[in-house]
Design goal:
The structure is a single chain. By secondary structure, the chain is α+β, with helices and mostly antiparallel strands. The chain has one domain: 2-Layer Sandwich (Alpha-Beta Plaits). A hairpin with a 2-residue loop joins strand 2 and strand 3. It is globular, with a radius of gyration of 13 Å.
Length: 88
């Protein structure tokens, strides 16, 4: 099962990735939510490194829904886990 997950991540990285829209307010919650510390704010915009596992924490915790995963997440529901707080 782990092999399948690794293949999925490899294939997903090849075709598309996360990006912040103009709705981004530079709050940094995406960077704080990343379990791998793979997101850095550069000039107020999130920049993803090479270690993304596509956990979707950044997408789901963005208060402005400004992060999209290619065209796949545009207009889609964002899950909010009531017990999870970014950066804690």
């Amino acid at each position: 099962m782990r092999f399948i997950g690794l293949c999925f991540c490899f294939l997903e990285k090849q075709c598309c990735g996360e990006d912040a829209t103009d709705e981004c307010v530079s709050c940094g919650k995406c960077a704080a939510s990343c379990p791998l510390n793979n997101i850095k704010l550069v000039e107020g915009r999130p920049v993803w490194g090479d270690d993304c596992t596509h956990c979707m924490a950044c997408i789901n915790l963005c208060p402005k829904q400004a992060i999209e995963y290619g065209e796949k997440t545009v207009g889609k529901f964002r899950h909010k886990c009531p017990r999870y707080k970014a950066g804690t």
